[in-house]
Amino acid sequence: MEDILIIAELVNGKLAPVSLQLLGKAHELAKESNGNIVALIMGHDVMEIAKELIKYGADEVIVADHPELAYFRTLPYTRIMTETIKDREPSTVLLAATSQGRDLAPRVAARLQTGLTADCLDLSINEEGLLLQTKPSYGDNVMVDIIIPQHKPQMATVRPNVFPLPEEVSNPMGEITTINVNFEDDDLKTIIREIVPEKRQASRLEESDVVICGGRGMGSKENFDQLYVLAEALGGAVGGTRPAVDENWIEDSYQIGQSGIMVAPKLLITCGVSGAVQFTVGMEKSNIVVAINKDASAPIFNFATYGIVGDVREVIPAILQEIAAI
Ligand SMILES: Cc1cc2nc3c(=O)[nH]c(=O)nc-3n(C[C@H](O)[C@H](O)[C@H](O)COP(=O)(O)OP(=O)(O)OC[C@H]3O[C@@H](n4cnc5c(N)ncnc54)[C@H](O)[C@@H]3O)c2cc1C
């Protein structure tokens, strides 16, 4: 079968946007490979989410529904995913390059004795009909194309926000198939006692409609912390450039760019960021970009919808004052 299997991911009981992004890309790939697009969803009470996947063009959604699957746990999810792939024999399996996808994909690939390309930035089909998986390599200094010619399925994890969200299809025809879920004792050894939401960031950076990004030009941790005030005022999340991470102003999981995460919010405000290519590759799909930089010739202004030439220490308090007056 030339089917493409998407592993749908849930965050706080909702479908992660990256799963829809993968579905959209799968549509494009399926035009060349002539397979069906199948999504696997593991969770509890997930029928509405299965219907959502159909609305966005899945030909079939396989539902593994069980109270033990309510929260992600490595071993039971690994078992279900492995067994589903053995049963359905898709030619391609796509997961998000999130902590969940990065945990599951290598385990399942090892059980299936197949190849996996992690952290892809693009996917296409080559002349031989194989999945061409494009990703940064050698310390992010080159982009490489990888194929998996001798084993099936071809497995890849893809970073969130590298593909756009698809439109709903006009005439959804997909089917929902519920599968029996059986565990072995060893699968359920991990017990989730409590889930503690991260305190600092109200929303996940990759999924936030508003992102404030601070660079070296913020000058100090104290100045950088002003960005959280701005983010809170605008209902957004904060990210940083690599120098901001190196300075310990923000954790490395919030680094935006080639070796960090990709963001594509409705509004991105960059503060004291120069606009190096390794940064802009991670934000160029943002909708509206406001850049604040004291150097009028900074390359970031080439990516900006609105540019503010000025000192962040003056501009950010001025913006906060304006917001407070609304
Ligand atoms: C293999 C590789 C991978 C990389 N991956 C990443 C990545 O994922 N993400 C990433 O960000 N970088 C990455 N980098 C680093 C990247 O090349 C740049 O060095 C980095 O993005 C620059 O960060 P910056 O804009 O914060 O700092 P700078 O380039 O130093 O820019 C600071 C800017 O702040 C402005 N400024 C200074 N003071 C003020 C002020 N008071 N008010 C207003 N503006 C001010 C300056 O005019 C300047 O434009 C990578 C590099 C390599 C080689």
Question: What's the helix and strand layout?
Answer:
Elements lengths: L3 E4 L2 E2 L2 E2 L1 H17 L3 E7 L3 H9 L4 E6 L8 H15 L3 E5 L2 H14 L3 E5 L1 E4 L5 E7 L4 E5 L7 E5 L16 E4 L31 E5 L6 H14 L2 E4 L1 H5 L20 E5 L5 H4 L7 E6 L12 E4 L2 H14 L1
Parallel strand pairs: 1-4, 1-6, 4-5, 5-12, 6-11, 7-11, 13-14, 13-15, 15-16, 16-17
Antiparallel strand pairs: 2-3, 8-9, 9-10
Helix pairs in contact: 3-4, 5-8
The structure holds flavin-adenine dinucleotide.
Flavin-adenine dinucleotide (FAD) binds next to helix 6, helix 7, strand 16 and helix 8.
Describe the structure.
- The model has no long low-confidence stretch (mean pLDDT 94).
- The termini are far apart.
- This protein is α/β, with parallel strands linked by helices and 326 residues long.
- 28% of the residues lie in helices and 25% in strands.
- The strands form 4 sheets. Strands 7-11-6-1-4-5-12 form a 7-stranded parallel beta sheet, sandwiched between helices. A 5-stranded parallel beta sheet has the order 14-13-15-16-17.
- Helix 3 (74-88) packs across helix 4 (99-112).
- It is built from 8 helices and 17 strands.
- It has 2 domains: 4-188, HUPs (Rossmann fold), CATH 3.40.50.620; 205-325, 3-Layer(aba) Sandwich (Rossmann fold).
- The longest helix is centred in the first third of the chain and has 17 residues, at 17-33.
- The protein has helices spanning 17-33, 47-55, 74-88, 99-112, 221-234, 242-246, 277-280, 312-325, and strands at residues 4-7, 10-11, 14-15, 37-43, 60-65, 92-96, 116-120, 122-125, 131-137, 142-146, 154-158, 175-178, 210-214, 237-240, 267-271, 288-293, 306-309.
